[in-house]
Amino acid sequence: MKRSSKIKLLLAGGLAAGALASCGPNPTRVSTENVYVNDQQVPGAGYYHAPFHAFFNKPYNFYDAGRRQYYYGGLWGSDPYQSIINISAPTPEAARAAEAARTDIVRGGFGSTAHGRSVYS
Amino acid sequence: MQRHTCQPRPDWRTQVENIGLTYHSHEDGPYWNESACYELTADEVERLEKAAKTLHHLCIDAAEAVINHNWWSRLGIPDMAVPAIRRSWERDDFSLYGRFDFAFGGGGEPQLLEYNADTPTSLVEASVAQWFWLQDTRPGADQFNSIHERLIAAWQRWGGTTIHFSSIKDHAEDIQTVRYLRDTCEQAGVATHEVFMEDIGWNRNREIFVDLAGERILNCFKLYPWEWLWHEEFGPNLAGDPVQFLEPAWKMLLSNKGLLPILWELFPGHPNLLPSHENPAPLGADYIRKPRLSREGANVTRVEGGVAVEETAGDYGQEGFIYQALAGLPDFDGHHPVFGVWVVDHEPAGLGIREDTGRITGNLSRFVPHFFMP
Known about the structure:
By secondary structure, chain A is of the alpha+beta class. Chain A has one domain. Chain A is built from three helices and nine strands, in the order ααββββββββαβ. Chain A has helices spanning 5-12, 15-22, 92-101; strands at residues 36-37, 41-42, 46-49, 54-56, 62-64, 69-72, 75-77, 87-88, 105-107. A three-stranded antiparallel sheet of chain A has the order 2-3-4, covered by helices on one side. Chain A starts with a helix and ends in a 14-residue tail after the last strand. Residues 1-26 of chain A have low confidence and may be disordered. Chain B is α+β, with helices and mostly antiparallel strands. In chain B, a hairpin with a 7-residue loop joins strand 5 and strand 6. In chain B, helix 2 crosses helix 10 and helix 6 (147-158) packs across helix 7. The two termini of chain B are 14 Å apart. Chains A and B meet through strand 9 of A and strand 9 and helix 8 of B.
């Protein structure tokens, strides 16, 4: 069984303040400063796999009956992944990718009237 | 009042670019024009200052009348904006700035052409560029200009701790104006962030606006007209006041030219007002027709003897027009100045003069610095 020094740091430090704030169906900005639990979902980015510090398009340890395999961290395996890590912060790369992929945030709803013109007045 | 011909500083382009005025030239010549300047008397400056102070309060009285009498249609205000305007008014949301445009020839009183109360531009020119020009060329003279200090003081009075600044992309004047304001805000000790209007995001789950980093936008200075915001895709999302905008929603009432006939109706014969009406009949055969919401001097028509003698192009006017008596714009060898008096945190703060060879000041007008002898 592996033990992550990062988790220890989180539990000792900002976990109480940070983790609960970001849990739930409406997460705030995805960043390395927030922590996520396994299978926490960010629309567009996917499901969080805490031991891998990143979001993936299937739930953690998702079982595919056709394959007879489990999905975790972007890989398939014959057994479910075992880890004590069920809450962690994403890596900077994973946070950036998740934030960019979010579909609960839409953009471009302002600015269309300008048509490139100054607001000059 | 005199218009002087001047020798521009040899390196004027570099000088003004260094302080943020990167948009100093049009396609057909300088927009920042220091080959001329205006000399005012202290008395003239005082009259401009007094007129701005008086009119700012009259405009607020007129706005209150609009709210109390539900005169929304007289300003073409969309129904969905009304509750937000009312709430903004009742909260007395903080207002940073605005600019009155006056017709003024030195004799008589300045007369109001319009109040750019929502998204006034030519700020860097008025606040910074002409001040450095004065130091370089006439260090013994004075200038009606405390805009910079008053902006910093206004941000301090605002009292917020963090704010986003937003303009449209790819337009130097707007970007530089917002950057300058952001600078004054930082100097007031407020944490600032930048997000372009086009990049603002709407988090559908949390019903909040966010920047590109996904951070919530709580306060936002927007150099973008309210009347555009309401009509765009995110417009309906504004109904719940998810962001405190500067300028606030109630400034929609002051920046609307539909307020001019209301001002004349409430304060007929006021020396700082030109007769203004919602139809041309009371003005006879000579008048200016202006769209309620036009910018860049667009779609303005000057009618003399019942005939349109000058007209500007544009795509405004669907919101309706107002009709204003012709102003006696002074003529300095074919140059017609308009006097823009800045109001910061409800107080007159400075002057910027733009002149045009036509009598309708448009987006090809030139900014000309000024001074007066104390």
